[in-house]
């Protein structure tokens, strides 16, 4: 039985800041951002969007009534959770009108959370072939204004339906994974911004990739020649190239050219959104599917997932026949092209506009946010969400 990705969609807020202009404001050469780390635009989340609303918006356009009935497991991968007790996925039930007879959990391990969710989903479908699993990856990357990590911020979510007989990608059985206690990136519960040792994080990302790649080759007996593309977790898009460079000499010139070309396709969405933590790998995968018009069914895609702290995994899937019929290319193109550019000053205002933490009430103006699902306010420590479609 084939198990894998049956549907996939993404959402990013309607605001962004241009990386060239941010560089000038920070007295940095623009090429450091646009070439050095490979970012062109950075999505900015307004106060009316959080990890819950972004995930709900990502899922809203890919689910039909049959999906909503058959989904009996919701796995929410995030490191931008809004509650230390209640799983963010529980809110999704009401917002999307999902079947109540379902399990719902939140998974956390830095940027690896959604991959853990997909592997859990695969096991669930193996035991329950008629069910479907909704895997959500939603995050707001925050390091702070004028910090070393500011240029690698972003906001967005990816929603994935995992099922038997998938329409887009059939996951293969072999996988290689690794865990090591590393303080390369973390966010204490008392902080709303992350802390990072950038040099160590880059080093660990590369070393994890090299190790799981070697382990995967031993388990699978595959080589670079067997891959049409390798997609990477992209905290910034240059990171994927740094990792690929460590192995592409293992193949022929043709292998190297093919992998580099497809890496470029897989980076396009991430360049214009920024880092979305748990969803970054899957945004890269979606970019490859939607931007490479020559990608063929039957192609094997490698996926490298890395979550600081640290957990890494390399796994693979096979592109399915007629997969293009199940993509939302026009919708995603409109989502990105219709966004509003913020000045650096306006971006800083949005960044500093945060919800109260003392239990006081706040009603938000959701008319300025074009998204279907928004955060409408907070009262007595309770967030109130609105699905505008259901309130027409």
Automatic annotation (TrEMBL):
(3S)-3-hydroxy-3-methylglutaryl-CoA binds at residues 143, 242, 275. The keyword Transferase applies. Keywords: Acyltransferase, Transferase. Substrate binds at residue 148. It is an enzyme of class 2 (transferase). The keyword Acyltransferase applies. GO terms for biological process: acetyl-CoA metabolic process. CDD domains: init_cond_enzymes. InterPro entries: HMG_CoA_synt_C_dom, HMG_CoA_synth_N, HMG_CoA_synthase_prok, Thiolase-like. This is Hydroxymethylglutaryl-CoA synthase.
